Structures are given as C-alpha cells and as structure tokens.
Automatic annotation (TrEMBL):
<feature type="binding site">
    <location>
        <begin position="230"/>
        <end position="231"/>
    </location>
    <ligand>
        <name>substrate</name>
    </ligand>
</feature>
<dbReference type="InterPro" id="IPR022896">
    <property type="entry name" value="TrioseP_Isoase_bac/euk"/>
</dbReference>
<comment type="subunit">
    <text>Homodimer.</text>
</comment>
<dbReference type="GO" id="GO:0005829">
    <property type="term" value="C:cytosol"/>
</dbReference>
<dbReference type="InterPro" id="IPR013785">
    <property type="entry name" value="Aldolase_TIM"/>
</dbReference>
<comment type="pathway">
    <text>Carbohydrate biosynthesis; gluconeogenesis.</text>
</comment>
<feature type="active site" description="Proton acceptor">
    <location>
        <position position="160"/>
    </location>
</feature>
<keyword id="KW-0312">Gluconeogenesis</keyword>
<keyword id="KW-0963">Cytoplasm</keyword>
<comment type="similarity">
    <text>Belongs to the triosephosphate isomerase family.</text>
</comment>
<feature type="binding site">
    <location>
        <begin position="9"/>
        <end position="11"/>
    </location>
    <ligand>
        <name>substrate</name>
    </ligand>
</feature>
<dbReference type="GO" id="GO:0006094">
    <property type="term" value="P:gluconeogenesis"/>
</dbReference>
<dbReference type="GO" id="GO:0046166">
    <property type="term" value="P:glyceraldehyde-3-phosphate biosynthetic process"/>
</dbReference>
<comment type="pathway">
    <text>Carbohydrate degradation; glycolysis; D-glyceraldehyde 3-phosphate from glycerone phosphate: step 1/1.</text>
</comment>
<feature type="binding site">
    <location>
        <position position="209"/>
    </location>
    <ligand>
        <name>substrate</name>
    </ligand>
</feature>
<dbReference type="GO" id="GO:0004807">
    <property type="term" value="F:triose-phosphate isomerase activity"/>
</dbReference>
<comment type="function">
    <text>Involved in the gluconeogenesis. Catalyzes stereospecifically the conversion of dihydroxyacetone phosphate (DHAP) to D-glyceraldehyde-3-phosphate (G3P).</text>
</comment>
Amino acid sequence: MDKKILVANWKMNPQTAREARVLFDAMINVGRLKNIETVICPPYPFLPIFGSPKSIKLGGQDIFWEPQGAFTGEISGKMLKNLGCEYVILGHSERRQFLGETDETVNLKLKMALKENLTPIFCIGEREGEEMSDIVENQLKQGLADIGKNQIEKIVIAYEPVWAISTGVQAKPCLPDDALSAAVFIRKILTGLFGKYLGGKIRIIYGGSVDSGNAAGYLKQTQMVGVLVGGASLDPQEFSKIANSLNNLA
Ligand code: PGA
C-alpha cells in the first residue's frame, strides 16, 4: 500500500527559531508512523535548524522559477534541496491572492522544481462564488503545460477550495461530497491530459480546514491520498491526532 501524504504548511509561523524547534520536536513522533509520509514545510529561515531528520521530510513553501541571479527576496530550488528539502508547495492560494502568483508563474516554478528533483505540491482550487470546474480545469491545464509524461507522476495535486481555508474571512467546511466531486473532476482532466494510465496514478490530496475530526473522512470518501494542513499543523497534539487517524486507515 502506498503511504498516505500528510503535509504541514506552517505558513509564516512561528516567529522564532526556538519556537520552531519546539514545534518540530513535538511532531517528531508523527514521522515514525509507518503508513504515512509526513512533510513539514516551515518558513525558509528555520529549515537549517532541523538538521536532516530521518523520519520527517522537509518542504519549502515556494521557489523562484530561475535557477539563480539578481532576484531580490527570492529563493531557488537548489537552495531548498541544499537545505534538505524534498518537497515544495507551489501555487498556494495565499500566494495567488497576495503575491501576484499566476498560472503561468506556477507553471514555470513547477518545471524548475522538477528540474531540481523536488516533489511539487501543486495547489489548485476555486474561490467563494467561483465555479470549481472552470477554475480547476484552467489551473491544471495552464499549470501543467509542457510538463512531460515522464515527470507528471512526481507531482502531487492539492485541491484546496479557497473558501474552506481556515484563515479565510469566513471559512466554510468543505463537505466530503464536494471534495469527492472535485477529485473526480480533477482526475477527469488529468486523464484527458496524460492518458488513462498516468492520469490515473497522479496523487491528489485535500486541503482546507483539515482537523482530526475530518481528515480521515476526506480520504475514505474521496479516494484522495493525503491532506495538506495549515492551522492545525501548528498544534502538535492535533497534528498527531490527524496523523494517527490517517495511519489507521486500511
Ligand atoms: P488550513 O490551511 O488548514 O488552515 O485551512 C490550509 C492551507 O492553506 O494550506
């Protein structure tokens, strides 16, 4: 059985290296669970303080699309690799909303991540009032443009309806039925783009107000293979409960 994927997106938290170390240490047991792959994505400055943890994978929260050079404030894929990262979150809705991320820039970043042998966690999802199918189809087609069939399997797609993200003004829970409809739709687009075999193998995970009460349900009811956790990943007890609930799934 393939491992379930559990991603912790710490966003711009916590504020000090000391707090980050305490948080990380409190989560270390989660990495020992056999049936899940745990990926922690802290802010960049904290990456070096964790050393090379064996049981937990590290991820970045973004990269730039150029390999190096005069790009003030940016960080390259190679830098993440060099700090022990195996994953990188790309196209997160907060970057799309606040930092001008577009489908085109996400596409360039995906290609750079693959070049650097990082596993991209490619976030897609509609905002409140938008039609899921229109938005998601566009994000997938543009974001995955020119990605070769030999590389597509490495990408993890994270469906995150923006209206369900806990930090949103009025986050609403995404019902498993809605997540299922999205998963089925995403799969349809992926098989259309990459064929039945490859399109059927690409991993899809869910994100948006995931907690210990709903995490396992998303996987059981939607055929998704993991979750991306924001707010609840800053609470080690809650995060452990989420991890256990996924680990105990058949
Ligand atoms: P949330 O965030 O779990 O706090 O809703 C998820 C995300 O934005 O990645």
